[in-house]
Amino acid sequence: MFIFLIREPRRGAAEDIQVAATPVSQPLRKVLRVPTFWWLVLAGLAFNFATYACNSFLVPMLQRYFLLPLQEAAVATGVIVGLTGLVGLTLGGWVADRIHQKYRNGRLLLAAVSMLVATLSTGYALHAGRVEIGVFVALFSLGWLFAYNFYTCVYTAIQDVIEPRLRATAMALYFAGLYLLGGGLGPIAVGLLSDHFSSAAMLAAGADEMSETSKGIGLHDALYLVPVALLLTMLALLKASRHFVADAQRMREGLADAAAEVVK
User: Fold this and answer.
1) How far apart are the first and last CA of the chain?
2) Nearest-5° Cα angle at 80, 144 to 60
3) Is 41 in contact with 177 (CB distance < 8 Å)?
4) pTM of the entire predicted model
């Protein structure tokens, strides 16, 4: 409903029209020479690894480890990764903008702190073992609520360090890396690790055949890759925040130089 209240901005209001119409030579090289962008790509790889692994295996883990019926497992997963998004994406964007007004690299620092909270919450939810399902859902939901700040902070940060003429190229590179590598590897890595841990649990139980209990333990333990990936996301965001101010300033100076060249 709220999207109907958003006003469409005037196109080209934030850029020089003449500069925007000027072609850029070697666009890929120019994008890849921005240090902040490199670190944000690495952060995105780790974050997509975590999100796709979680989205792929959270329902079967709740079924096997917590013994929930499919419908209840699906509802719990919807609360964890769905309901939190409605709140996190809306509130997180507002908070990120407020912090950015006070600190030039505030968005990325907020994203890094959010990843720390997400790491601790999801890690503790898994470490707690077979606690009450409500406790697990609450802890994991808290982590995912903060994790959604990745979207509200990182995508805007890319626009701040990449000039308007190169933003489509930058986002194409960014999403190619995120989904071909991060999104593709997450489910595969967790699946392979789940098979390994399930076999280990079966052997530890002295069983000859794989049981649902062993599968549940294996998948539960494999999902520790999620908080690990979130921690790596945090580290990459901290590195990006250290380069952000200089890269944003360099981008503005480059636009000024390009405008001067057009005038000449």
Assistant:
1) 48
2) 115
3) yes
4) 0.88
Q: Are 165 and 24 in contact (CB under 8 A)?
A: yes
Write the CB contacts of 136 (distance below 8 Å, at least 6 apart in sequence): 66, 125, 128
Cα–Cα nearest to 236, from 37, 66, 23, 30: 37
Q: Which residues contact 81 (CB under 8 A, 6 or more apart)?
A: 51, 54, 55, 58, 144
Where does the chain have alpha helices with state H?
A: 17-20, 27-32, 35-65, 70-78, 84-102, 106-127, 133-147, 149-161, 167-177, 183-204, 212-222, 225-263
Structural domains of the chain, with CATH: 30-263 (1.20.1250.20)
Give CA–CA dist 16/262, Å, rounded: 10
Give residues with Cβ within 8 angstroms of 106, minimum separation 6: 96, 99, 100
Mean pLDDT of each 10-residue bin along the chain, 264 residues long = 67 51 73 93 95 94 95 94 87 88 91 96 94 95 95 92 88 88 88 94 87 92 96 97 92 69 53
| Whole-angstrom distance, CA of residue 79 vs CA of residue 67 | 18
